[in-house]
From TrEMBL:
Keywords: Signal. This is PKD domain-containing protein. The keyword Isomerase does not apply. Gene3D superfamilies: Immunoglobulins (2.60.40.10). It comes from Spirosoma radiotolerans.
Length: 967
């Protein structure tokens, strides 16, 4: 075996590989295709095929093959191809490997899904998991990339892989490779294993999985730790591919796919096909200490130490890969900031040989232009430097950096006024973090609780509602949207970053600290809206309120005035003035209550409606002497009660649209058994949590202080209810008002009753077939079945039976259908005019409410069939015995099929009918001569079983046409 080293990174080849010629082996070790849309007005893409070649010299080296790899045919997935010439060749690993770049542009005609592919003629000879290894060189190398083109993707690019796939493995030790993939658009990446592909022709556009490919674990016996089974897997998040552990030396190929996702939609796939060479060596792979993921605000200077050790005490080299470095796979800077905006990250003491334990420092001065939703992946690689000719081994460590936007600073809130009434003005410091197009989102909620936000959380906490968006140049905003006095409001601001490429570079900043404000109370507060009388035209509601809180009689200018308004419905907004009350705001004045009885033009129908009230407060402007509105209260509605009947129960529900909270209180339920005029007894104190408020009355009275009215509810009675709610303002300024009580309207309802009668017990007078004689039921064609039953009973059944329903089915297999019904007290029924007694019955009881019991027992009656034929008849026209017909009294015959044969088997007559009557003629109408005839009669009876087999009679009959004496 021969090893060639440069910078401590070996490239080696099995000495048994003998190249038959450059035309038969390319020495390509790995490759992938990447794309980038380069136009916003056309679907033009820059497409790059990156191929990694062995570039060693000598009889087994790949330099000559790599030099001659000047062009390949690229398939664009839309039916077109192009011969693409090599645009760049870069030598790495001390010129033992080369990176060949083939780049072109292509414009697609329209949106669609396109798979770009390229075929490289011949792989390397000696690939063990492409058996037989000595023939693996004739298998073409094929890679492809699939892109999804649509207008929303804008300047989308596939991810690029920044770590060359040129590491080696050792028998018995875990081998890992990380491609250090980076997506400049911030799309999410996912990784999965694949199978290397080949192509049917040298310039084929279609790839197919190599049929003889074998999973690398087939060449392993155990993992590095000695456990089993060995594994070959890829981390779907970090992309770290590991074989734990190679079991034999040699050359192996495998492939993996990187999926590109945006907003939960797959938008592309890129395949890397790569090769490693496993050697047998005592060298142990180096190790990197774990690095925790980071979450930092943009503008933070990151200094992260990276420490590596080597079990053998060898020197090591620490390298860094990722888009944050803006360094390509050839370890050269990418032009024109191709990956991310400056400043780029650096790895101090990286890519140099150090004694172990070795340390390099990852440093990155982040900035606001680099903010994105998707974390940045940074992959560190440590390579040991053993003495020659021992091959180097590597290990990887990937850590993620989530770069989030800083919060908006110095948010404050203060009360203000506008032409439209109350308002809150917000102010904050200028915000300069974010690309052009960044917006500031303003959120609000009621309540102001202390909350410590996680430093990595972005966006606002739960409970906030977006009320506005402003540009980043704004430093103030006035909120005038539906603000209520006495309510504490909390505000937070968040920066929303633009999605510049249609990708996932957007997102939100950390939330600002909250700014809280309680609007001062300069207006009255409604404290009661209670229904006094429930009437359709003369209802009555009492409304109460406080004097203006925070306003003294000498403030502003008097006289003062209340103007009470009313709207219909819980959510009514069409307010009508109903009262004007002048006040001096003196405590002795009875000016904070109004009894609303409606008017001749505005009747108060508390039976049909809830009503909603609000109160305007006016003062006298000292400069103009005019009454001027200072403020208006939050509206408050009456309590609205609803009822839903249930089985011997009534379910009550109630609601109110009020500025105080009725939650987490005790509400009282009142019931009257004698009607809406009472008396009403309190039957339950209900501890409610949150609306909707519900209580089900089953007749129980659990509040006994005013008497026990417990009794089962009857569907024949009406019950009336009213509910008293308790509530309280939640704002600290108003909690001193105490508990607020309000009554609903009176509502009457009746329960339902779903109690059913018990099923009856049914009996049937059936025929006693054994006791019938041959003459029984002779010539009878109409029959009657006699049914009788006894009523059912039980403590859980309704005894108020009004009728019985009879169900009947002709056959045992039938589903019985309703036949008739009889009123109580009848317990018998005659089913008449039947052609047969066969049939089944059951009976149900029906209550006075129309509820039907379960079926009774099922009873069935069976027919008693009879059918007998003679053996001679004389069809000579003398009116005696001229017809062959059944003997006396056939019973319950439905059909007879009759066939007659001569003694020699010739059929002479055939008929089918409800009975049998043969006059001795043949089917052609001619009289059959005297003689012996054989017959078969198939007789079907009207029995209980629909599928009952027929009676088959096979016998003979004698036809006699001459007069003779029968003995």
């Amino acid at each position: 075996m021969r090893f060639i080293y440069s910078l401590g990174l070996p490239v080696f080849f099995l000495s048994c590989i003998l190249l038959p010629g450059v035309s038969q082996a390319t020495h390509v070790r790995a490759g992938e295709i990447t794309t980038k849309r380069i136009s916003t007005t056309s679907l033009t893409y820059e497409i790059t095929f990156t191929a990694y070649y062995d570039y060693t010299t000598g009889p087994n080296g790949g330099k000559q093959a790599a030099d001659l790899a000047n062009e390949y045919t690229m398939c664009f997935g839309d039916g077109t191809t192009e011969v693409v010439k090599r645009s760049k060749i870069t030598y790495i690993n001390g010129n033992t490997s080369s990176i060949n770049i083939y780049k072109t542009t292509h414009t697609y005609a329209g949106p669609g899904t396109f798979t770009i592919g390229i075929t490289v003629v011949n792989r390397n000879k000696g690939t063990i998991n492409l058996p037989p290894p000595d023939q693996s060189l004739i298998i073409p190398f094929f890679v492809s990339t699939t892109i999804y083109i649509n207008a929303a993707l804008l300047t989308n690019s596939t991810p690029v892989m920044l770590n060359p796939p040129l590491d080696s493995g050792r028998v018995g030790q875990k081998f890992c490779h990380n491609p250090a993939a980076f997506d400049a658009d911030g799309d999410s990446l996912a990784y999965r294993l694949s199978v290397p592909k080949t192509a049917p022709t040298d310039n084929s556009c279609v790839g197919r999985a190599i049929a003889v490919y074998q999973d690398p674990t087939r060449f392993s016996t155990a993992r590095e730790d000695g456990g089993a089974p060995p594994t070959f897997s890829i981390n779907p998040i970090t992309g770290e591919l590991c074989w734990d552990a190679p079991g034999e030396l040699g050359q192996f190929n495998f492939a993996f796919i990187i999926e590109e996702w945006r907003n939960g939609v797959l938008i592309g796939e890129i395949t890397r096909d790569m090769q490693i060479i496993v050697v047998d060596s005592p060298n142990k792979r180096p190790l990197i200490q774990p690095i925790p993921d980071l979450c930092v605000e943009a503008g933070t200077l990151i200094n992260q130490p990276v420490t590596a050790t080597d079990p053998d005490g060898q020197r090591v080299i620490i390298s860094g890969f990722g888009g944050v470095f803006n360094i390509g796979a050839d370890r050269q800077p990418l032009p024109a900031a191709e990956l991310i905006q400056p400043a780029y990250a650096r790895l101090i003491n990286g890519d140099i040989t150090q004694n172990q334990p070795a340390t390099a420092t990852f440093t990155w001065q982040t900035n606001c232009n680099q903010i994105r939703e998707t974390p940045y992946d940074v992959t560190f690689k440590v390579t040991d430097v053993p003495p020659k000719p021992t091959p180097s081994l590597v290990s990887f460590q990937t850590f993620r950096i989530r770069l989030i936007g800083p919060p908006i600073q110095n948010l404050t809130a203060r009360p203000t006024a506008t032409a439209n009434g109350r308002a809150i003005q917000l102010n904050w410091s200028p915000y300069t973090c974010g690309l052009p197009g960044t917006k500031l989102a303003i959120y609000r909620k009621e309540g102001c609780e202390p909350l410590v936000l996680d430093k990595c959380s972005t966006g606002v906490p739960p409970g906030y509602t977006l009320i506005a968006q402003v540009p980043t140049s704004a430093t103030t905003y006035t909120d005038t949207s539906a603000l209520r006095r006495g309510v504490t409001y909390s505000y937070r601001l968040v920066a929303l970053y633009p999605d510049v490429n249609g990708g996932t570079n957007g997102g939100a900043s950390r939330a600002s600290e909250q700014a809280c404000l309680n609007l001062p109370l300069l207006a009255p507060v409604i404290t009661q809206v209670t229904v006094d009388s429930t009437q359709t035209a003369t209802g009555q509601i009492t409304v109460r309120w406080t004097r203006p809180i925070g306003l003294n009689p000498g403030d502003l200018g008097g006289p003062y005035q209340y103007r009470l308004q009313r709207a219909t419905g819980l959510d009514g907004t069409t307010y009508t003035p109903i009262a004007t009350i002048n006040t001096s705001l003196q405590p002795s004045a009875a000016d904070t209550v109004y009894i609303d009885r409606g008017s001749s033009t505005s009747a108060l129908n508390t039976v049909a409606n809830a009503y909603r009230y609000r109160l305007e407060f006016y003062y006298t402007d000292p400069t103009t002497g005019q009454l001027t509105r200072l403020d208006v209260t939050e509206p408050a509605s009456s309590v609205r009660l609803a009822a839903s009947p249930a089985n011997r129960q009534i379910t009550l529900s109630w609601q109110a649209n009020v500025p105080w909270s009725n939650d987490k209180q005790t509400h009282d339920i009142y019931r009257s058994r004698t009607g809406p005029n009472g008396p009403f007894n309190k039957i339950r104190e209900v501890a409610v949590q949150a609306a909707p408020y519900v209580f089900t009355d089953d007749g129980t009275d659990s509040f006994l202080a005013d008497g026990n009215t417990s009794r089962v509810l009857s569907a024949d009675s009406s019950y009336c209810y009213r509910v008293m709610t308790r509530g309280q303002y939640t704002d600290a300024q108003l909690t001193r008002l105490g508990i607020l009580t309000n009554y609903s309207q009176i509502l009457c309802a009746s329960p339902t009753d779903t109690t059913r009668p018990c099923p009856p017990s049914l009996s049937l007078d059936s025929l006693a077939c054994a006791r019938l004689t041959n003459e029984s039921l002779c010539d009878q064609t109409s029959f009657t079945n006699q049914l009788s039953w006894t009523p059912g009973g039980g403590p859980s059944c309704d005894a108020n039976v009004a009728a019985y329903k009879i169900y009947y089915g002709r056959y045992r297999q039938d589903t019985l259908a309703a036949l008739s019904s009889v009123a109580v007290p009848a317990t018998r029924f005659e089913h008449s005019n039947l052609s047969t007694v066969a049939g089944c019955y059951y009976v149900t009881a029906v209550s006075q409410r129309g509820l039907e019991s379960a079926p009774s027992n099922k009873v069935c009656n069976e027919a008693c069939p009879s059918f007998v034929l003679p053996n001679v008849f004389t069809p000579n026209g003398d009116g005696k015995n001229d017809v062959f017909t059944p003997l006396k009294c056939p019973r319950f015959v439905e059909q007879v099929s009759f066939v007659v044969y001569t003694r020699w088997g010739a059929k002479v007559y055939e008929s089918t009918g409800a009975t049998l009557s043969w006059d001795g003629r043949g089917s052609d109408g001619s009289a059959l001569p005297t003689g012996l005839y054989y017959y078969q009669a198939t007789v079907r009876f009207a029995l209980l079983d629909r599928n009952a087999p027929p009676l088959i009679l096979k016998s003979w009959v004698q036809i006699i046409r001459e007069e003779m004496t029968l003995r």
